[in-house]
Amino acid sequence: MSAYTEEQKKTLEEYIKNNVEAGLELSWYFAPVGEAGCGGKEDVLMPAASLIKIAVMIEAFRRKKEGTLDFSECLTVNDVVEGGSFYIKRRDDSVPIYELIFHMITESDNTCTNMLIRSLGVERINETVRSFGLVKTKLRRHMMDFEATRRGEENTTTMRETSELLSLLAQGRCVGPTEDRAMIEILAAQEDNCLLPAQLPHNLTVAHKTGQLEGLFHDCGIIYGRKKPLICAIGARNVTAESRTVWELAYFVRYAYDVLTAGT
User: Fold this and answer.
1) Closest Cα partner for 218 from 19, 25, 82, 4?
2) Measured between alpha carbons, how far is 37 from 245 in angstroms, rounded to an integer?
3) Of 1, 4, 2, whose CA–CA distance to 257 is shortest?
4) Taking CA 66 as the corner, what is the angle to CA 207 and CA 163, rounded to the nearest 5 degrees?
């Protein structure tokens, strides 16, 4: 049973109808941590873009916990691709694994991501995701591999499944309480804050990850405010004016936060 009423959901749907660009294909989901929530098209399969990096981070921390990965081990930066500072500044540097994870999340660096995927293995990452009961969140290709995209090999997720991953992290039930807190701290250092937490009260902590491709913009995170943390997942396709879309969705998130946390 949802933690929210049908009236609250209808209120959010009405806001979207009146305030969000009509041509946008929007998928959204809000839920208190550990509970069912409400959303719209939250189970629609979407390209994951950089949201898939959450799964890569989780697998790295899982391997560290089991003792098969040393975060102080250094890897040499190679096969650089666009997206993030490593493309220009860090070629041939020797970088600790923890630093690769940090930059993969906070600045969404694609070179760091690809280095970690090669180190961890695509199937091992997917096995860990499946162990949480998630069947639509899949890593199929490296970042910036557009040849794979043209072959139909796209990384995928849904807003509900991304919310479930974040909820596990917030509860300390993903890898372990210590590891999950460390991952949340990394997510809270996110540098792209144009959607989350742009219009939220400035005293809130928001641990989140963005994702962008041409015509697509995602932002999913944990909002720590009032009493119980709130999971927020926003996915948008058919984005033609990104600045406008991000502005509209940032205000939608603030409206939803006020509606769903009123009286708590």
Assistant:
1) 25
2) 24
3) 4
4) 30
C-alpha closest to that of 93 among 111, 106, 105, 107:
111
DSSP string computed for 163-206: HHHHHHHHHT-SS-HHHHHHHHHHHTT-S--SSTTTTS-TT-EE
Q: Return the CA Rg of the chain.
A: 18
CB atoms within 10 A of CB 262: 9
User: 86 near 77, Cβ under 8 Å?
Assistant: yes
CB count in 10 Å sphere of residue 49:
22
Contact 77, 111 (CB under 8 A): yes
Distances (CA, A) of 233 to 55, 78, 97, 117, 123: 15, 33, 28, 24, 25
CA angle 59, 134, 125 (to 5 degrees): 25
Q: Compute the distance between CA of residue 183 and CA of residue 170 in angstroms, rounded to an integer.
A: 10
Per-residue tens of pLDDT for the chain, all 264 residues: 888 999 999 999 999 999 999 999 999 999 999 999 999 999 999 999 999 999 999 999 999 999 999 999 999 998 899 998 888 877 778 999 999 999 999 999 999 999 999 999 999 999 999 999 999 999 999 999 999 999 999 999 999 999 999 999 999 999 999 999 999 999 999 999 999 999 999 999 999 999 999 999 999 999 998 779 999 999 999 999 999 999 999 999 999 999 999 866
Q: How far apart are CA 83 and CA 103, in angstroms?
A: 11
* Buried-exposed string 163-195: b where 16+ CB fall within 10 A, e elsewhere: bbbbbbbbeeebbeeebbebbbebbbebebeeb
Coil, strand or helix at 79: coil
